[in-house]
Amino acid sequence: MILVTGGAGYIGSHNVLALIEKGYDVVIFDNLELGHIETVGTLKNIDSKGKVVDFIQGDLQNFDDINSVFKKYKIDAVIHFAAYSQVGESVKDPQKYYFNNVYGTLNLLRAMLENDVKRIVFSSTAATYGEPVYVPIDEKHPQNPINTYGRTKLMIENILDDYDRAYGLKSVRLRYFNVAGADSKTRVGEWHEPETHLIPNILKSTFGGSKKFQMFGTDYDTKDGTCVRDYINVEDLAKAHIFALDYLEKGGETNYFNLGTTEGNSVKEVFKACEDVTGKEIPVDIMPRREGDPATLIADNTKAKNELGWTPEKTLSDSVKTAYAWESIRSI
Ligand SMILES: NC(=O)c1ccc[n+]([C@@H]2O[C@H](COP(=O)([O-])OP(=O)(O)OC[C@H]3O[C@@H](n4cnc5c(N)ncnc54)[C@H](O)[C@@H]3O)[C@@H](O)[C@H]2O)c1
Asked: In the chain, how many domains are there?
């Protein structure tokens, strides 16, 4: 049985689908503060071919909530998505982030140790690297996060190293770049409130209203002058978690991997992909550069390819197509 914290959220729900497809029993743990009961309903109703898909509502900040899951089920490994992840909010209210992300994870790890569960796949982020010293960013790149959110994730990575040294708890930390897209069968998709990510916001704007977007900086040293980011498809991302789980099940040591495509798409390319998929013109105002936006942020994914055997397959266009199909259903 795999415990998925945050399984009612965006990335967690796609991972639950991938786990079900691989024949795992799954228990989702989520407080539904940011996740959705509708998503849980969808996941519980998937034909899981006799495998268990259960849901426990609880909060990681409450030790008894999470400990009771380990008492109820025989958990083999944990995939840990539950966290707050809005950069701006993390800077305005760091206490909220340190309690939920760091203290919540400490409770989870305590429950794992008390119940002798020693394998965890953890959602880390490219935000742990901070300003790029070089690109593509590989795993040896210094980790100097420039905001509270990134610091909470780096703290957890350090805690996981200590817990391996002291207690033999093995972890795989997956550092995601920009996650995009939805399930290709449109069962689940990206559903953040408020939505802070560019692609869903552009797509949402095409369903009525007349939102105008701002493009910050067209004079960067990139292919078309706009910032380049690495968009990794959420289904590709989910597959990487299955590989990470497999790696740990086979006795793999604590490790960490970048999850990105290494390709990188510019802001202009993102708008163009959205226009191509929706067939609508997206109005944009060109603005000066924004402080603190690096020109290019892309992953070197060689390590995940070589050591996990994972290769991302989907393009930006694939992600925009599935995200649009998902938004189309939600807008009805
Ligand atoms: N979306 C991205 O592009 C991206 C990039 C890098 C890393 N990440 C990381 O991936 C993970 C998932 O991100 P997401 O976009 O799916 O976020 P999300 O908000 O959609 O999902 C997070 C889920 O965790 C739950 N949760 C939060 N705190 C909880 C708590 N204390 N107890 C129980 N449940 C709790 C929420 O209700 C939600 O369902 C996060 O850890 C995030 O930091 C996301």
From this structure: 2
- Between strands 231-233 and 170-176, the pairing is unpaired
**Greatest CA span in the chain, whole angstroms?**
57
CATH of the domain at 291: 3.90.25.10
CATH number at residue 94: 3.40.50.720
Whether 190 is covered by a domain: the verdict is no
Which of 3, 33, 195 gets mutated to test ligand 1 (max ligand atoms within 8 A of its CB)? 33
Distance CA 42, CA 56 (A): 15
Domain of 16 in residue numbering reads as: 2-180+231-261+301-305
Alpha carbons 277 and 272: distance in angstroms, whole number: 9
Q: Is the minimum distance from the CB of 32 to ligand 1 under 6 angstroms?
A: yes
Structure tokens at 220: 């960067």
Q: Is the CB of 264 under 6 A from ligand 1?
A: no
pLDDT (0 to 100) of residue 83:
98
> For residue range 20-46, what is the model confidence (pLDDT) as tens digits?
999 999 999 999 999 999 999 999 999
The reply to whether 256 belongs to the active site is no
Look at residue 57 and tell me if it is in a domain.
Answer: yes
Three-state SS string over 195-260 comes to: CCCHHHHHHHHCCCCCCCEEEECCCCCCCCCCCEECEEEHHHHHHHHHHHHHHHHCCCCCEEEEEC
Quick check: CB of 178 below 6 Å from ligand 1? Answer: yes
CA of 247 to the centre of ligand 1 (A): 23
